[in-house]
């Protein structure tokens, strides 16, 4: 955390400041609004993702702009699709092709807005993609992780397409998609698989791994399996857990709503937490990855939204029962961050 406060957070803010200046110059008012909103409301996504750069400070000048640019693309496109002027699956897929291109250093940039009326962003999205590509070229082990990164990004793109189409089509599209992939995660329910595909943590861990010039495909494959589906699934299920009331009011899809009871939801969350801990216990520097898991639990379960929802409070109390020392530290730490860094 000393590294995070001294080196990572300042680097993230510097990078976001540069990106924000570029966003302010976007000519199209809708694209500009969503770009600026994604930066203003989701800064903590970039800060959380960039924690992975703390594990290799010698490469922070590559990892921070890479992670921040990639996460900014994700947040920007999520805003565009959530508040979209279209519900066209082809439009959403073309927008998200930028994320696939961002993790392929040799990809040619295209007009990602070609299927929507908003067009003029003055090169904003292209600049984010290009930053990612140029950073990846500086990662000596990227060839070993590239296919695994592309696998996770491909699943992420599918999720974003299916969850943003017309509400009456979403659930069936997601179920049909799960049928194609359920053999990969036989112990998960369809909503849990979908959630697991929505996290960027596995991609960021693979970026970090790619700083090792001696990384091979066996090691890269093991890292992929250690993060997907349980660590990534825990990340997004926690996000949906605290957003239940907000999503209910907005008519948005929420993967926690597919449990039959509060007890089932608690049992499934506990199972995913246990599996996530077990998965990372076999990784080198396993304490770092355990820190990520405990940090996620503390970050989400101390969110102010928790106290406003009785069912969520119940789940939170069960999951935080007998908190290990690391999680107790993060409980205090995240409360301090919210008070001193985000509350204005």
What features would you describe in this structure?
With 344 residues, the protein is mostly helical. It contains 18 helices and no strands. The model has no long low-confidence stretch (mean pLDDT 91).
Rg of Cα set:
19 Å
Our measurement of the CA-to-CA distance between the termini, rounded to an integer number of angstroms, reads 23 Å
The profile of the biggest β sheet is: none
Task: Please report the total strand number as a whole number.
Answer: 0
Low-confidence blocks of residues: none
- Please give the count of helices: 18
Q: Structural class, judged by helices and strands?
A: mainly alpha
What percentage of the residues does DSSP assign to strands (E)?
under 5%
Rounded mean pLDDT score: 91
> How would the global form be characterised?
globular
Q: How is this structure best summarized?
A:
The chain has 344 residues and is mainly α. Helix content is 72%, strand content 0%.
Task: Outline the fold blueprint.
Blueprint: H1 2-23, H2 29-41, H3 43-50, H4 60-82, H5 89-102, H6 124-136, H7 142-164, H8 167-181, H9 190-196, H10 201-209, H11 217-227, H12 230-242, H13 244-250, H14 262-280, H15 286-301, H16 304-307, H17 310-320, H18 325-342
Please supply descriptive tags for the structure shown above.
344 residues; mainly alpha
């Amino acid at each position: 955390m000393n590294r995070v406060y001294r080196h990572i957070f300042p680097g993230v803010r510097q990078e976001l400041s540069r990106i924000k200046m570029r966003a302010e110059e976007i000519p199209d008012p809708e694209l500009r609004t969503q770009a600026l909103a994604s930066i203003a409301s989701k800064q903590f996504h970039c800060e959380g993702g960039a924690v992975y750069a703390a594990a290799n400070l010698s490469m922070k000048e590559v990892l921070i702009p890479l992670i921040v640019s990639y996460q900014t693309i994700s947040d920007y496109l999520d805003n565009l699709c959530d508040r979209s002027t279209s519900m066209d699956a082809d439009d959403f897929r073309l927008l998200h092709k930028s994320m696939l291109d961002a993790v392929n250093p040799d990809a040619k940039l295209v007009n990602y807005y070609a299927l929507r009326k908003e067009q003029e962003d003055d090169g904003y999205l292209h600049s984010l993609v290009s930053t990612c590509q140029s950073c990846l070229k500086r990662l000596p082990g990227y060839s070993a992780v590239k296919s695994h990164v592309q696998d996770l990004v491909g699943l992420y793109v599918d999720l974003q397409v299916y969850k943003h189409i017309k509400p009456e089509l979403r659930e069936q599209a997601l179920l049909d998609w799960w049928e194609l992939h359920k053999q990969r995660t036989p112990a998960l329910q369809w909503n849990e698989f979908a959630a697991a595909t929505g996290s960027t943590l596995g991609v960021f861990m693979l970026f970090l791994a790619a700083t090792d010039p001696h990384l091979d495909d066996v090691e890269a494959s093991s890292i992929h399996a250690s993060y997907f589906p349980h660590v990534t699934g825990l990340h997004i299920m926690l996000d949906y857990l605290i957003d239940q009331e907000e999503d209910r009011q907005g008519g948005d899809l929420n993967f926690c709503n597919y449990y039959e009871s509060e007890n089932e939801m608690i049992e499934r969350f506990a199972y995913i937490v246990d599996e996530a801990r077990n998965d990372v216990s076999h990784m080198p520097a396993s304490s770092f990855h355990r820190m990520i898991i405990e940090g996620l639990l503390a970050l989400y379960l101390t969110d102010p939204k928790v106290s406003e929802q009785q069912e969520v409070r119940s789940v939170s109390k069960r999951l935080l029962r007998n908190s290990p020392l690391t999680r107790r530290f993060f409980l205090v730490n995240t409360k301090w961050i919210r008070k001193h860094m985000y509350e204005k």
